[in-house]
Structure formats: C-alpha cells, structure tokens
Design goal:
Elements: E1 5-7, H1 11-25, E2 42-46, E3 49-52, E4 59-63, E5 93-102, E6 106-109, H2 111-123, H3 130-140, E7 146-150, E8 154-156, E9 161-162, E10 177-178, H4 194-199, E11 221-224
Parallel strand pairs: 2-7
Antiparallel strand pairs: 1-8, 2-6, 3-5, 4-5, 4-11, 5-7, 9-10
C-alpha cells in the first residue's frame, strides 16, 4: 500500500464482498485457507486503470452499493470497464480477472505470485515502471492470475496544502493551495473522517466526501455472472 493511500470507512465490508468475488473468479470450490481463495497471484485493490481479461468474462457484481462514487468523482489514467456498455448503473461495482492495469495504490501478492513477479520482471527485455510491468505481466503471462475491482477500493489522497507535494513525477504550480483534501473514487474518505472515527464513538455519522452522493433505497445486492 502506498503511503498516501485512502479508502472508504466501510472498507471491511467492501473487503468481505471482494473476497466473495475473488473466490468466484479464482474458481475456489473447497474451503480455502484464505478468505480470498487460494488460486490467485495478485489482488489489485487500488489502481488507476484495470482492464478485464477478454478470455474470462466472469464477473462478481455488487449492486446498489452506496460506497460507489458517481462518475463525475472518478478519475483514472487509462482504460477501465465501460460500466454503462456492460449494462451496469452508477451504483454498481464489479470484481473480475484483469489482464492489464496501472498504479499500485494497494495490492496483495500471494507467495507464489511474488515468485512469479520476481522471475518475470527479471527476465523482461524492456524496463518499465513496476506498476506498468505488473500490468503487462497480467496481460502477457497466462499463468499469472490477477483479480481486480472497479471502481477501485483504494486510491491516493490529495492532502490540503500545496498541490506541489502531491507527486514528484508531475508538474504543479508551487503557489497553488488546496483548501481541503480529497480522494478520487472514494465515497466516504477514511482520512477525511479520521476525527469522527477516533473521537465520535460508534454512533458517529461519517461525512460524505461528495455532496451529490445519491440516496440509495434497499440493501446492497450481489450476484455471479
């Protein structure tokens, strides 16, 4: 996990759904040692692009999810699943086998997966930043099993203060100040709710990051496709 990562205050509940999806995508049938299943190499929880493997169209679908931000509060730097074309509305999240991606805000490697990454990255002919290298490995190594989620569960936080501290690989106006921090792709930021979490008690109301989050009716629903 990167040191500026952020996630929703409902992260534990999100992980429970993601684990169900991961077991499905990894074809786990018996009782696994891991809640995420035992036949995966990479779990890609935080990214800025993730594409579904065209040879595996299975999806675990989470509908009516109030932790999914509206489209105008999502930011990605490359391709992501085209949810409307797939028939999903703006309150839906999917778990799927990925064959490419960018950014490593948060991820998990199994022991076997770590071995595969070391071998593959050591033998590639062209150097790439590690996030792109792993994305290409998901695409080009048929034996490297990558499972992703979109919208992502973890993203980078842009803190209040000088925008120039956001990154050391971008260009920023050193005088530009951000009045309030934000985290794209996150509905209720843990970083922005830290005081509520620490001091508000169990009945504390978590603040929405975006004023236009829709009010959803009914419980969250899941299904296998």
């Amino acid at each position: 996990m990167e040191d500026d990562s952020d996630w929703d205050v409902s992260f534990k509940d999100q992980l429970a759904d993601f684990a169900t999806g991961s077991r499905y995508i990894s074809s786990t049938t018996s009782k696994p040692r891991s809640p995420y299943g035992d036949d995966w190499d990479l779990l890609w929880l935080g990214h800025c692009s993730a594409q579904q493997d065209p040879t595996d169209q299975r999806r675990f679908v989470i509908e009516n999810d109030d932790t999914v931000p509206p489209m105008n509060h999502r930011l990605n730097f490359n391709e992501v699943p085209k949810m409307a074309e797939l028939g999903y509305d703006n309150s839906t999240r999917i778990v799927f086998r990925a064959n490419n991606g960018v950014c490593l805000y948060s991820y998990a490697l199994s022991f076997r997966g770590a071995q595969k990454v070391l071998r593959w990255q050591n033998n590639v002919k062209t150097f790439n930043p590690i996030d792109m290298g792993i994305g290409y490995q998901c695409r080009d190594d048929a034996n490297f099993r990558c499972i992703a989620v979109y919208p992502q569960l973890v993203d980078s936080h842009k803190a209040a203060g000088r925008e120039s501290k956001d990154s050391d690989i971008g260009s920023f106006d050193p005088k530009k100040i951000r009045e309030k921090g934000l985290s794209w792709n996150i509905a209720r930021s843990t970083r922005l709710n830290i005081d509520n979490l620490l001091y508000g008690g169990s009945e504390a109301k978590m603040e929405d990051q975006w004023a236009d989050l829709p009010e959803l009716v009914g419980p969250r629903r899941t299904r296998f496709e």
